[in-house]
UniProtKB/TrEMBL annotation, chain B:
Bias (Basic and acidic residues) ranges: 486-500
GO molecular function per UniProt: ATP binding; ATP-dependent protein folding chaperone
Source species of the chain: Coniella lustricola
Sequence segments annotated as region (Disordered): 479-524
InterPro entries the record matches: ATPase_NBD (IPR043129), Hsp_70_fam (IPR013126)
Keywords, ordered alphabetically: ATP-binding, Nucleotide-binding
Any one Gene Ontology cellular component term annotated for this protein: nucleus
One Pfam family here: HSP70
Protein name: Hsp70 protein-domain-containing protein
Keyword Nucleotide-binding set for record: yes
Amino acid sequence: PTLPEGWSADKDFKVVGKVSASTERTIEPVGPHFLAHARRARHKRTFSEDDRI
Amino acid sequence: MSANGADQASAGSERVAIGITFGNSNSSIAYTVDDKAEVIANEDGDRQIPTILSYVDGDEYYGGQAKAFLVRNPDNTVAYFKEFLGKDFKSIDPTHNHASAHPKESGSSIAFTVKDKTADDAASELSVTEVSTRYLRRLVQSASDYIGKKVTSAVVTVPTNFSDAQKAALTQAAKDADLEILQLIADPVAAALAYDARPENLSADVQDKIIVVADLGGTRSDVAVVASRGGMYTILATAHDYEFAGFALDKVLMEHFAKEFIKKHKTDPRENARSLAKLKQEAEATKKALSLGTNANFSVESLADGIDFASTINRLRYEMIARSVFEGINRLVEGVVKKAGLDVLDVDEVILSGGSAHTPRIAANLGSIFPESTSILAPSTFATALNPSELAARGAALQASLIQEFEIEDIEQSIHPAVTTVKHVANAIGVLAKHGEEEIFTPIIAPETAVPARRTVHVEAPKAGGDVLIKIVEGNTHIKVTQPEPKSKENGDDKAKKDADDEDEDESDFSDDEEEEEQEKREKIWKVGATLAEAAVRGVKAGAKVEVTINVLADLSVTVATREVGAKGGVRGNIPA
């Protein structure tokens, strides 16, 4: 939507809330995408760090 | 380095790994060639190899050959034993073993008494682990013969309700057969992987979708609801049933033909064990023929009292007499979708797996439960469907090829709960955009997505361009039920109403079912929840799109990056957890 008149925020970004609900579940350790996730998790890398390697 | 010789033999590069599906009724072996999984036929030419072991005059038979001995040599033939691994005698159901060697209690385990040496020797007592070891040895031998290299390792599929004791017993049985088990994976996930890893799918991005895997086997049916998010699978709910499975369909045909035989010959072939065994084997063959053709023969030489019996049945008649079983499967599937807290409208794909999934009527019935937008992946309803019997084995083979280079400790660390148990967002996270008067929610991160997760979407900026407000909000779906218009209304009115409704379901993945409109219209709509953040993208060109990337981290904090497509810079921000 179009920016309303007079809207402003620090660096044009305003935090209003946060992610409200989550559940603990178990991912199935199968498939190439899981293995990529496990690699990131074990080396404590983020997505962008992983992309660079 | 010669001292390390023994260790090196088991190291990654030396491995030849296959995928194994070890079922109660049938087992399969699969291997990957050039990233494509192939199910291996054994020396009898069978891809579905019956899980049966038989001894005649000291010779061991397995698979199809052993199955034939169920008629003439039932006492020395062991069948339906996989389910007994790692269980104690009191907890098992020996129903399916009445027609072959009976299970008996042996210490804390279960054993079978068979004459596995020459006929004159005393019978031996074989534990269920030993039977499994011998059977696995034969399976692996078949695979080794086909590949031309000794198979050392395997990924084996197991049902989702397989206990740790059962897994340990299976691993031990494999170890005794000189087979290293790299990983035990769940049947439904293997089936989902078999579809997702097809080469024609790999070029496309993996979509976020909800999958129902209906694994319809010989002695059991297992249904699982799986959330597939970015190619990672999370099982949301499962159901297991030991009543509505392949044997129940065999039984329907056995009853049907037994009655026909009695009418003609006044003897009941079900009262004689050998006649019953013949009846069962032919009923199964007829059932398989009815999955392919609309007519099938049923004929048994010397069925009972030395009388041959031949008859035919058409598919329509079979579907009529088997209706209660089919309906049971429907209820099972509907039940597990409900158990997952979902509606049939939430389901994107139904994967039919297992031998009984070849039945066209089962696929058609499930098609009528789910909306038209749901793909029913079965041979009769989906042009490029894979063979349902081969799915789990293919999935296992693909997983085996992915991890065969890994050290066993690496695999163990990767499948550790610390890695696999993570938070999943309960609500969707997306952007709110204004289309005319309506505010439309575009999901970016689907509900039940495991974190960390990163997704990017392109949303349309207002046509005129200018400064754009990006509102990041939570959302969840709910089912809107519209009562039907009174019958007196003209068709044109209905149409106009439908068009109006179409606007608010613009972003919904589901189109409603024309047939159901007669009764009531159910549709999935997004309900907008709390706002998480607002960001301004200034000076967007007319007609341009805005790229929004949302990255949810493991602690549920969120980073948002927005920019005009093609432009540099943009606005970034962080929402703390």
